[in-house]
Automatic annotation (TrEMBL):
Keyword entries, A-Z: Membrane, Transmembrane, Transmembrane helix
Protein name: S-layer protein
Membrane-spanning residues: 320-340
Any coiled-coil regions, as ranges: none
InterPro entries: Cell_Envelope_Struct_Comp, SLH_dom
Residues covered by the SLH domain: 17-80
Organism annotation: Thermosipho melanesiensis
Keyword Transmembrane helix set for record: yes
Length: 343
């Protein structure tokens, strides 16, 4: 039972981790615990032979661990119950033996045989007292079983010896027999008392262990509830993250649609600007042609001053064309800015 409690404690402390070998070196602080759990069959490693001690535990894995622990508990409880049943049978046999001894001692025996009987009963009494003291210290079920079995074997040997030595003899002194009979009866009474005290002790040991197992079950249930709440919180966080991601996706889709509208409007404005530029180019070409024609005409009809005046007019026309082109480009930029800024 002590070993079982140690295993349960290790399961709780290790937080139900997987057992493995490759990534758990011998100098690791949890190496002994992991090996003990693996040997008990409570945890096993991954197929690749790793332990992965830092991984989280799923509900499925937790259910497997608890099932294995409960199976071990059930087996140990069955062992304890069988041990108690065996001991109760032995104690019942002791009652029958003491009754037979009383009946046999009702007849007279020799002085030497009475002395031998007295010594044998002293040995039996010491064996029963030793069992009682061992139970008082709450030793493990295996230790109690071994101790009781050894004592029963010793008692059976003594009883066989007593049966061989007990013979009917009417020649002994009645007074001496009565005194020794009373002495033996007192010792037998002590044996019965010790046996009676040992039976409740055995039962109390079983009940106490059963109570400890119940407490362990309660702790396991409480621990499972805490883990389940933690998992629920994590699932809730995941749902919130999904909702936030969906919100971001919707926002991005809206921005993409808006960007498409802006791109379409920008293309329209660029096409308009291109048309304006083509128109301006045509006007500039017309101005150049007119300027050349005027220049030629003036070369024949006018002097230098007139030519300069015409050239200035041509330059003014070119300047106005360029200014118009720049204003068109600025208008396109303002349209794009307004499209992005507009909510």
């Amino acid at each position: 039972m002590k070993k079982l409690l140690v295993i349960i404690t290790l399961v709780l402390v290790s937080a139900f981790i997987f057992a493995g070998l490759k990534d758990v070196p011998e100098n690791h602080w949890a190496y002994d615990s992991v090996m003990m759990l693996q040997k008990a069959g409570i945890v096993t490693g991954y197929p690749d032979g790793t332990f992965r001690g830092v991984n989280n535990v799923t509900r499925y894995e937790l259910a497997v661990f608890l099932a294995r622990v409960m199976d071990l508990l059930e087996k140990d409880i069955q062992k304890v119950m069988v041990t108690v049943d065996v001991h109760e049978n032995d104690i019942a046999a002791l009652y029958e033996i003491t009754g037979s001894l009383k009946k046999a001692l009702a007849n007279a025996v020799t002085k030497e045989e009475v002395e031998v009987l007295s010594k044998r009963l002293d040995v039996i009494d010491k064996d029963v007292i030793r069992i009682y003291e061992a139970l008082s210290k709450k030793v493990s079920a295996d230790d109690v079983e071994k101790m009781v079995n050894d004592s029963v074997d010793s008692i059976n040997g003594q009883i066989e010896f007593l049966y061989k030595k007990i013979t009917v003899s009417e020649e002994n002194s009645k007074k001496y027999v009565d005194e020794k009979y009373n002495e033996l009866a007192g010792k037998l009474l002590n044996v019965e008392t010790n046996v009676n005290n040992a039976i409740p002790m055995l039962r109390n040991l079983v009940y106490q262990n059963a109570e400890s197992i119940k407490n362990v079950d309660k702790k396991l249930v409480k621990y499972i509830n805490v883990k389940m709440q933690s998992v629920d919180r994590k699932l809730k966080d995941v749902e919130e993250i999904k909702e936030f991601a969906q919100f971001n996706t919707d926002t991005l889709n809206g921005l993409a649609a808006k960007l498409g509208e802006v791109e379409y409007a920008l293309r329209k404005q660029i096409e308009g600007v291109k048309k304006d530029v083509e128109s301006v180019k045509k006007d500039v070409e017309g101005v150049k042609v007119a300027t050349e024609e005027n220049k030629k005409a003036l070369e024949t009809k006018a002097g230098k001053d007139e030519l300069d005046a015409v050239a200035k007019k041509a330059d003014s026309a070119n300047t106005l064309s360029i200014v118009g082109l720049i204003l068109g480009i600025v208008g396109v930029g303002l349209g794009v800015y307004a499209a992005f800024v507009k909510p």
